[in-house]
Design a protein that fits this description.
binds nicotinamide-adenine-dinucleotide, binds 2'deoxy-thymidine-5'-diphospho-alpha-D-glucose, seven-stranded parallel β-sheet, alpha/beta, 13 helices
Length: 359
């Protein structure tokens, strides 16, 4: 089996759903269930013995050690993190605890476990760390996209904490020989994304007739990738990636924020017209994010050349699917927005009884 951390979040849940569609190899899912973790994302796996969920912290060494010894996964895919830049600006502490200290504890337990494995198991074991393009900092309008050798220059507490974890992962390979792989991906979008992030927030607010807050002048550029393409990149790197290497993942899809929001509005006008008028009327420019990175762009040439990966979705196809998904899953959105999903966890898992952090 494989161990996935943070598998109840946006990308982790999509990864597990995709994994179990393509393979019967079981997944042990370790997730703390912070505000961003939502087991409703995995409701379709209810009763599926291939998915084993454990509620817990990647920084809980006793729990991690016990899980590794008991389940002996052949690989770990580490998604668990605090992921929202704005939250890191308001309160960086949790970001340091999970992204830096938590990753360190997870690495330490993994190292101890890996060193004790028989040679054959040791040779095939992998630790894949899922990271972000934000570690590279901000680009000017004419700069070339980030490559794997672009120096780190993180600007927010979030990106600094992810950069720290990337460095630790690298050091565990260099010093101890731990067989690690790292992916640095651009902005994801798609089903199950928590509506604090740009695209789902705009869909949610627009359907409620609420303002669509655009930070600054709306001309900050992000490079968008449909989430299942990120998942397929991670599967590819896990399968074929060279130990110790990092791979940038992106969709060659740079767009200013205001253009993203206009696209979402136009799709909503088509799929669910508002009698009050075009959704774009709700666009509202607000105070900028402090330290707001101007532009991210990923050069995904290495993963394409060396591992043969490329995205399946264009932005046009992906954003259409995404808006459709949110409109078709308003109950999910409402549960998340109201906090109702937390009750769902208790109903679903509470009555089964917790065993030392396991649900
Ligand atoms: P998310 O916030 O939706 O999910 C994070 C998950 O991790 C949640 O389920 C949460 O409960 C869990 N978690 C948090 N702290 C934990 C801890 N201490 N122990 C165990 N579980 C914990 O995040 P996401 O958008 O799915 O991102 C997943 C990973 O991908 C992160 O590492 C993030 O840095 C990286 N990433 C995200 C994007 C993006 O656009 N969303 C792009 C590139 C990389
Ligand atoms: O680049 C990868 C990163 O993308 C991931 O590592 C992060 O986990 C993920 O959250 C995301 O970070 P961003 O800060 O780019 O994403 P966010 O959706 O928060 O914002 C996207 C852009 O939209 C950014 O320039 C800020 C802007 N924005 C965001 C929100 C929430 C707005 O203008 N208004 C908003 O209300």
């Amino acid at each position: 089996m494989i161990l996935v951390t943070g598998g109840a979040g946006f990308i982790g849940a999509n990864f597990i759903l995709d994994w179990l569609r393509a393979s019967d190899e079981p997944v042990l899912n370790l997730d703390k269930l912070t505000y961003a973790g939502n087991l409703e994302n995995l409701a379709s796996l209810q009763g599926d013995a291939r998915h084993l969920f454990v509620q817990g912290d990647i920084g809980d060494r006793e729990l991690v050690g016990k899980l590794l010894a008991e389940h002996r996964p052949r690989a770990i895919v580490n998604f668990a993190a605090e992921s929202h830049v704005d939250r890191s600006i308001h309160g960086p502490e949790d970001f340091i605890q999970t992204n830096v200290v938590g990753t360190f504890h997870l690495l330490e337990e993994t190292r101890g476990h890996w060193m004790g494995l028989p040679e054959a198991d040791k040779a095939v074991f992998r630790f894949l760390h899922v990271s972000t393009d934000e570690v590279y900092g901000s680009l000017g309008p004419d700069d070339v996209p980030f490559t794997e050798t672009t120096p780190f220059a993180p600007n927010s507490p979030y990106s600094a904490s992810k950069a720290s974890s990337d460095h630790l992962v690298r050091a565990y390979h260099h010093t101890y020989g731990l067989p690690v792989l790292t992916t640095n991906c651009s902005n994801n979008y798609g089903p199950y994304q928590f509506p604090e992030k740009l695209i789902p927030l705009m869909i949610l607010n627009a359907t409620r007739g609420k303002p669509l807050p655009i930070y600054g002048d709306g001309m900050n550029v992000r490079d968008w990738l449909y989430v299942t393409d990120h998942c397929s990149a991670i599967r590819t790197v896990l399968e074929k990636g060279k130990i110790g290497e990092t791979y940038n993942v992106g969709g060659w899809n740079e767009m200013p924020n205001i253009e993203i929001v206009r696209t979402v509005c136009a799709l909503l006008d088509e799929m669910r017209p508002d009698p009050a008028g075009p959704h774009e009327r709700l666009v509202t420019y607000v105070k900028d994010r402090p330290g707001h990175d101007r532009r991210y762009a990923i050069d995904a040439g290495k993963i394409h050349r060396e591992l043969g990966w490329k995205p399946d979705e264009t932005f046009e196809s992906g954003i259409r699917k995404t808006v459709r998904w949110y409109l078709d899953n308003m109950a999910w959105v409402e549960h998340v927005a109201s906090g109702e999903y937390r009750k769902w966890v208790d109903v679903q898992y509470g009555e089964r009884g917790a065993v030392s952090g396991e649900r």
